[in-house]
Amino acid sequence: MSKNAKTIRYPIGFKLMFIITVLLALSLGAITILVSTLVSMDIRVTAENTNFSANYNAAAAAEQFFAVNNSAVRILLRTLDTFDQADERNAAVNYFFRENGDIAALITDRLSLVNDTFFLVHEADPSRIVPFLDSRAGYLARTSEGESFVLNAAPEFEIPMLVLLLQDSSGQTAAAFVSSAVLARYFGESGNVSCLINSEGDVLVHPDQSMINSGANIKNDPFVETMRGRGDLRMQNLYTDFSGTRYFGAFSKLNAANLAVITTIEYDVVFEGIAATTKRNCWLSAGVLFISVLCVWFFSKTISVPLKKLSAAAGKVKEGNFNIVLKSGNRDEIGLLTESFVEMSRGLAERERLKDTFGRFINKEVAEKALKGELKLGGENRTVTVFFSDIRDFTAISEKMSPQDVLEFLNSYLVRMVACVSKTGGVVDKFIGDAIMAIWGAPVSTGNVARDALACVRAALLMRAALREYNRGRDGVEKPRLRIGCGINTGDVVVGQIGSKERMEYTVIGDTVNLASRTESLNKPFGTDILVTENTWKLIKDYIITEEMPGVTVKGKEAPVRMFAVVNMKVTKPGMEQPGPHTLAEIRKQLGINEPDMKKTNANSMEVKYKIHD
Predict the structure, then answer these.
(1) Alpha carbon distances (Å) from 251 to 54, 165, 240, 532
(2) Domain residues of the chain, as ranges?
(3) Nearest C-alpha neighbor of 54 from the set 157, 195, 150, 156
(4) Tell me: the pLDDT tens digits for 294-321?
(5) Predicted structure pTM score
């Protein structure tokens, strides 16, 4: 064994020495060539071309952005002029905002059109539109004389937003409020920094959002002054700013509203890689060569012993003994292999222990708590908020589809709904066909019953919004429009694991769960999509807009239960206007739900599960 070790050890040492020497020689030779004058010139040309290309891409994107939005606004204004009926005009406006989701508002001399969905999603205040336009009355006056302008509205609305001031074919002045977020991706590529400015030097689009929000103006920048003094539409040169820093700068003047795109990259940034790489590689090569001369023999001698230990340990693992205690003082590949082998044996042991454990759970949160030992065996009393949802007329929908289409459609729907539950801290308890049961307050909780209940209602509202988005473009047998009903109830339940030794499930049981399920089924006769019981309503009534429904006596209950339809979240921020919807009637109109007839509902009930009181 010793003889074999000697015959192996020395060749490895010599081979390592040879490889290291060759690699270092090649590295130093390549570095010497790269830092030569020829490479420096090539790098400069490449940097200028890249900068010019980035400027061109950003300018092209900006041109297309303004052309598309200007065209959309003008087409809408011409279309509205052809309609005499209010419902036709409203339909045209709704379609316009659906197809142009980045347009927040369109204000003209005769119209004031606001995309409520845009302001709700971006948590912006539409009431700032009028003050903004009033403060820019001079630009509006010049627009009425035939000029076009693009203004930065980000400081007022606290989101990336531009205002396009233009005049349509009929001569009326229009102000279109458009999100500029889509342009950001073109204004900071490959280390180049691009920005869009207007005729006044205001920064309209920039990778640094703080410059947009602060309303930065760069009209006095040396490169901007150079651009204004030249008649070129496109140009690039090397310039120095006020701080003495040199930049490669390129500009492109746009056809729209005297706009320009400026792209820069710092001169030192372009060439700093050459010097830094040369210096770093020289020190690294010298250090590696010095250390290798001293240590290569030591490494070769320490290979055989660790490998022998690993071989013996592998035999134990083969016999099913995963409790391996193996240490190595080597800090090389052998040491890493030893540590990896130990981790592997521990992983195998852990996998054996967790095979049965993970098979009992479907929820990530439950499984994680079980692994940490935080999940109590048996049951415990908890106050939770229980949620049920169901797709309306799912049986009728699925009968018209193939099994494969039903599965794909259902999975697509559940992905969106489960995301709403997870986003608000809820846990999906189970799927019952197309129905979803979820809980807030177990196994994880915010520590406050009211906050858990409010999170559940937020999830339901997110589902409403997600379903409206999902239903866009869905109309027909293959892609039917969906409506859901959600029932929410808060109360005491028994939380724990039920099942057998072979299969266990973490769930909640109790009267609170039954009432939540009954509540969900009441959405259809009530003509609602989200219902909460009085138990939940009392906890969060100050935070939600609701309308009380007729009292209900459910099966198994003697006293009537108060039910409340959820309309919207209340705006608690002072000075901020409450966005729509505001009433249950608006919700029904949005979702296409007809006004219910309570008397007919009670009379036609096939199975007495509930009684609706007048």
Answers:
(1) 10, 23, 15, 58
(2) 42-269, 302-359, 376-612
(3) 195
(4) 665 565 555 656 666 776 777 777 766 7
(5) 0.45
